[in-house]
Amino acid sequence: MNVSRRDFLKGSLAGAAALALTGVGIGQEAPKADAAGLNSKDPAEKPSFFTNPYNHVASDAAKTVTAEVIVVGAGNAGCAAAASLADNNVKTIVIEQQNVIHGQGGGIGMVNTKFVQSLVDEGKLDSLTDVVEHQNIWVQRCGSRVNEKLVSMWFNNSPATGEWLIDKCAEYGVIPVSFRARAPKAIIPETYDYHMFFGVGDYQFDDKCGYFSASNVCYTDAQRTDKHDSPAVFFFNTKAQDLLVEDGRVVGVFAERDGELWLFRGTKGVILATGGIHEDPEMTAYYCDDYVNRVQRCEHGPAGFSTGDGHKMGLWVGGKMQDSGAFPLMLHPQANAMFHGCFPFVNTNGERFMNEGTWVQGKSMNIMNQPGNIAYSIFDKDFGDYNVKSLEGLTGGGMFWDSMSGGVGDPFMPEDVISIVESDVANGNTLVADTLEELAEKIGCPVDTFVETINRYNEMVKQKFDDDFHKPAEFLYPVENGPFYAAKIGVALLAIVGGLSVNTDLQVLNNEKEPIVGLYATGNASGDLYAIDYPINCAGNSNGRCFIWGYLLGKILAGKEGLDETLTDYDELIALKGEDGSKVVADETVYKDGVYEGTGTGRNGEIKVAVTVKDGKISAVEIVSHNESADIGGPALPKLVDQAVAANTSAIDGASGATMTSNGFREAVAAALALAK
Fold first, then answer.
1. CATH top-level class for 336-490?
2. Which of 267-271, 404-408, 669-673 is most confident?
3. The dihedral of CA 578, 583, 585, 586: what is its sign?
4. Residues 578-600: pLDDT tens digits?
5. Do 101 and 79 meet the contact criterion of CB atoms below 8 Å apart?
6. Which residues of the chain does CATH 3.90.1010.20 include?
7. Are 546 and 76 in contact (CB under 8 A)?
C-alpha cells in the first residue's frame, strides 16, 4: 500500500464524524456547585438520574459469567484497558451495547514518545516538550480546579504508554504520523505531540472495527490466544444496567443481553469506560453551563450512546462527580467552514469582537457569545499567501489554522488551504463576492457597519497595531483585494470531559473521597483531569487519557487482590459469546433488476453510488464519487457497502464514528433504490 504522509493527512481536518446533537440544547441557568461536588440550580433537587431504576440482585440474573475484570464499554478507553489487561495476564471480559467497537477522534495526544523523539533526532523538531511549562498551562487553563496528581500522572506516563502503543500498532502495520503546525511562541503555546495512527500494511481488521486504527489494534491484540495466556473476551449487543455491590465492594455489573438479564462478575473489579453525558438532556442541564446549548452540532458519535450510563452507575453505588463546577466542553470551531485562519471575525451585526489569533477553545467560546452563536472570518484573494506567513513564525498554527494536510517538516503552501476554501464555497459554508458591500449582503449583516469594520481593520494593519483587541502584529493581514470571502464559523462539541472523581489508582471515590473497592473509571466516565476549559495546548490529550489510563489500569489491576471465586472457563466464555446478535438479516423487498444511481450528502459533500440489483436483490453497490476524508469517512464507505448488500436495504446501522458519511451513503442508496421499485 503506497500512501504518502500528505495523502493520509489531507482531509483529517474533518476530525470525528459529525452527528446531529441529541439531548443538548435545553436552556438553563449556569449551575452552581453543591457540597458533594455536583452542579445544580438547587442542590436539594436531585434529578431522576440519581435514582437507580433497576436495583437488581444476583438472583435476578438468568446467566452469570465470571472473570477477574469486567470492562464496560469498547471505545478508545475500554479497548486500551482490555489490551493492557491482556498484556498483564488479567482475565477480562468487555461488554459493549453496540455491535461494534467505537474508537474515534482525530488523534492521540501523548508527550515525548519515541515517535516525537524520532522527529527531534531527524531535526524536524528542536526539542521535546517542556513538561513543566505545559503542565502549568494545563492547570492554569483549568482554573487550578483539577487533581494535579492526575495531571502529573498523564505527563509522566505518556512516554511509556506511547512506546507500548506504538510497538503494539507496528505489529499490524499501523504507524504514527503528525501534522506540521505547532505554535510554541503563541499566546497559548501548543506542542507537537499529536499522534494520528494510520495503517500502511496489509492487515485487515474484522468487521467490529472502525476507522480509528489505534483502538482497532488494541481490540484485536487483546483477544489473541497465540499471544496471551488470558486473552480478553468481548460481548457485543450487551447493555450494562447497574452494578452489584456485596460487602461494600463492587463485584459485578448487570447487563441486558438477548432479552435476558446477565450478571458479569469481576473478582478484581469493574472498569467503567462508557463515554460521556452529552446525549442525556437531564445530565447536561445539571452538570453543564449554558454554553452546551450554543453549539451547532456534536461531532462525537455514533448517536444515542453517550448517555452517561457509567456516571449513573457510579452515582448509584455512592460515587461522586468531580467537584470543579460545570463540566468542561471540548470545542472546535469546525461546525461549518473548515478554514478560517487568523483573519478578522465579524458577527451577524457586522462587528468585530475578539483577537482572532488565539487557540481553538478561545475562538469557540467567543463565537458562542455572538448573535446566533456564529461568526464569519473575512479574507481576500491573497488568503493563501497570508496564511503561510502566519504559520511560518511558530506563533500561529494548530488545528483549524493549519490545514493539517502536511507532515512535520513539510513546507506550508497556499494550496493547502485554497482547496479547503474552494470546497467550503461549493458546499455553501463560505461565501464569496466581488465587493465588500456584496459580501455583507450575502452574510445578511448591515452593509455600512460591515464596511466600516473592515476599513478600520485595514487601517490597523497599516499601523501594525490592533487598538481594539491587541491581536499580535504578525497576524494582521489586509482585506482589500477582491474577490472577498466570508467563512461561516460555527462551534462543534466533541465531548463533555467531566466525570466520576477518581484517585491515582483510577478508583472511583465516594463523597468522603474514599475509594469504592472494586470500581474504576477511565475515559470520559472519569473526572478530575479537566475543569472549566479543555486544555488543548497538548492536542488530543483526552484520547491520550484513554490510552494512558488504559495502559495503567492493566498494571494496577494485575497488582490488586481479587475475590476467591471460580472463573468462567475460556472455552465456555467463547460459547456463551456466540454470534452476539450481529448477523445481518436481509430485508425481503424485491427490486427491479438493473443498475441505479443515487446521491446523498456526506460530511464533505456529495456521495454518488451505483446500486446493482440482480434477481430482485442488491448484489453490489459501487461508490461512484465522494469527497469524504481519508482518515474517517473514506475508510467507512467499504463497510457501508458491505452492510447495504447484506441487508438488501439502505436502512443500515452505519459506521461507528462516521455518522455524516453514513447518513449520506444511506441517502444515496435510498435514492437509487427508489428508482428500482
1. alpha beta
2. 267-271
3. negative
4. 864 445 567 889 999 999 999 98
5. yes
6. 594-674
7. yes
Asked if the 36-329+495-570 domain carries CATH number 3.50.50.60, the reply is yes
Task: Give mean pLDDT, residues 385-394.
Answer: 87
CA 668 to chain centre: 26
Ranges of beta strands (E only) in 515-650 are 515-521, 594-602, 605-614, 617-625
Q: What is the pLDDT of residues 213-266, one digit of tens each?
A: 999 999 999 999 999 999 999 999 999 999 999 999 999 999 999 999 999 999
SS (H, E, C) 367-400: HCCCHHHEEEEEECCCHHHHHHHHHHCCCCCCEC
Angle at 528 between CA 527 and CA 529, to 5 degrees: 95
Which residues in 455-464 are b (16+ Cβ under 10 Å) and which e? Answer: eebbebbeee
Confidence of residue 34 (pLDDT cuts 50, 70, 90): very low
**In the numeric block, which cell numbers belong to residue 439?**
459580501
Rounded-to-integer distance, Cα 17 and Cα 335, Å: 11
Cell triple for 214? 489505534
Mean pLDDT of all residues in the chain? 88
Q: Which residues pair with 179 in a beta bridge?
A: 407
Task: Give the three-class secondary structure for 304.
Answer: coil
CATH of domain 594-674: 3.90.1010.20
